[in-house]
Amino acid sequence: MENKIIYYNTLDSTNVKARELGLEGAASGTVVVAKEQTAGRGRRGRSWESPAGENIYMSVLLRPEIEAQKAPMLTLVMAYSVAQVLREEGYHEAQIKWPNDIVIAGKKVCGILTEMEMNGFAIGHVVIGVGINGNREIFPEELSGKATSLFLEKGEKADCEELIKKVVEQFEKDYKRFLEAGNLSFLKEAYDQMLVNCDKEVRVLEPGNEYNAVALGITSEGELMVRKEDGSIENVFAGEVSVRGVLGYV
Ligand code: BTN
Predict the structure, then answer these.
(1) Best mutation site among 74, 130, 163 for ligand 1 pocket (most ligand atoms within 8 Å of CB)
(2) pTM
(3) Are 204 and 237 within 8 A, CB to CB?
(4) Residue 171 has pLDDT above 60, yes or no
(5) CA nearest 115: which of 45, 183, 19, 179?
(6) CA-to-CA distance for 166 and 88, rounded, in angstroms?
(7) Ligand 1 lined by 170 (C-beta under 6 Å)
(8) Cα–chain center distance at 120
(9) Where are the alpha helices (DSSP H) in 45-139?
């Protein structure tokens, strides 16, 4: 995988740009970075606030030769890579909220949005977008209870450019291991250790079905294993549901 990082001042969304580059034939491993996004995208059609200069907005374009149903696993690989880098950089409390958020002290510091383009029945390309709250000092009241930034957690400015390079490097290694293994068995144990929900009660929100359960860890396919109140074990698939703490976000 060749990692070419392309920097922009302003984009509508790095995911949109990476998709365009993907459709134009850009190489697997191309990384798009912007200082500001005017139409940053979050999961479930939400927007992602992307003010200039203070945060990380990046997207990685990939052309994995894997079955399309395995693509959601790439979100977990990226979450693992980001959490790993943050821990190495001194944010020791960084944890993963399955499947695609990184939290510090129970508040979200990073979100990941993976989007896939099909080419017939095969994957054309995958774009993994990563938004990290870097040096944001103030959050609007409705977010301040559940969002934080690296600056707020450490009390010193984060070097966003350096962090981008480190995430790209770490992801390159983890992505390679993922392609070799064909699943997440290689990181399952380390991932579970960083899983904020592990052994905690969570609320599983499936379309038309909500229940409380205890999160046990991930499977090698990236599903969240949970123990329901009747003692039965269920594997929850990332694409269909969201999971939150029984009392709030984590
Ligand atoms: C979420 O809802 O938690 C996912 C947020 C993903 C935001 C990032 S910022 C870089 C990339 N470009 C986008 O438009 N979204 C992702």
Answers:
(1) 130
(2) 0.95
(3) no
(4) yes
(5) 19
(6) 10
(7) no
(8) 26
(9) 73-88
Q: Name the phi and psi angles at 14, rounded to 5.
A: -65, -30
Tokens coding 19? 């998709």
* Token pair 């030769």: residue: 65
Distances in Å between the Cα of 173 and the Cα atoms of 23, 27, 150, 220 are 25, 17, 24, 18
- Asked if residue 42 has its Cβ within 6 Å of ligand 1, the reply is yes
* Of 48, 57, 115, best ligand 1 pocket probe by most atoms within 8 Å of the beta carbon: 48
Residue-level length of the chain: 250
Taking a C-beta distance cutoff of 8 angstroms, is the pair 10, 34 a contact?
Answer: yes
The answer, yes or no, to whether residue 133 has pLDDT greater than 70, is yes
pLDDT digits (tens, 9 = 90+) for 198-216: 999 999 988 888 899 999 9
Does residue 217 line the site of ligand 1, with CB under 6 A?
Answer: no
